[in-house]
Write a structure and sequence with these properties.
Layout: E1 2-12, E2 21-33, H1 34-43, E3 53-54, E4 58-59, H2 60-64, H3 68-73, H4 82-103, E5 107-110, H5 115-118, E6 150-155, H6 161-171, E7 176-179, E8 186-190, E9 197-200
Length: 202
């Protein structure tokens, strides 16, 4: 869409009720393409450093370099969109901070997954629905995961993960929680919908 810039705003004719008539004067020769402007803003956005805090106890590096495949391959696994960093931070703030306060430090086993990383993970992932891709876009500029938000798998060592999952369900706002077993990591996500859905995985 093309929008004309305004030259100025003038307040005219104050009424007895204190309201104003607003007069806008436009310069038609000055135009902005808002789509291009938005893209320029995003392209020049300052993304967080990996070592910047993400929530109160973790940093972004914890979410990006935690997976076994990423550590083994050394694939550069970076979010490209500011929205992805925001979603990861929201997950840390809304869920993980509360879990750490209750149970102590957690161990992240699978966090953010870029398209490059997803292509080399051999099994048990579903990028279109699992939210590990956060708010990243495909090559066709469409969301990789339509649910948006962000997801992480984690375990609290020496704790019953059934108890941890039940505690999250009772005390946290989340989108989806996948429970795999009492001694296995849980998957938890936060996103725009935050449905609070719990799935028992086999």
């Amino acid at each position: 869409f093309n929008f004309f810039s305004w030259f100025g705003i003038h307040l005219c004719e104050q009424s007895i009720y204190g309201s104003f008539r607003i007069e806008l004067n436009f310069h038609k020769e000055i135009k902005f393409d808002l789509t291009k402007l938005e893209n320029r803003i995003l392209d020049n956005a300052v993304l967080p450093s990996l070592d910047d805090p993400c929530g109160r106890f973790l940093n972004y590096r914890d979410f990006i370099e935690c997976g076994e495949t990423q550590q083994r391959t050394g694939i550069l696994n970076l979010p490209k969109r500011p929205e992805s960093y925001g979603a990861i931070n929201a997950l840390a703030t809304m869920v993980l901070d509360l879990v750490i306060e209750e149970y102590g430090m957690i161990k992240l086993t699978y966090g953010f997954s870029s398209p490059e990383l997803s292509r080399v993970i051999m099994a048990r992932i579903a990028p279109k629905i699992d939210q590990h891709s956060a708010c990243e876009l495909s090559r066709q500029s469409m969301p990789i995961c339509s649910r948006q938000g962000a997801a992480v798998d984690f375990i609290v060592e020496d704790e019953s993960m059934l108890e941890v999952a039940q505690w999250i369900a009772k005390h946290c706002e989340f989108d989806r929680l996948y429970y795999y077993g009492d001694d296995r990591p849980v998957h938890v996500s936060a996103g725009p919908e935050n449905n609070g859905a719990i799935v028992l995985m086999k």
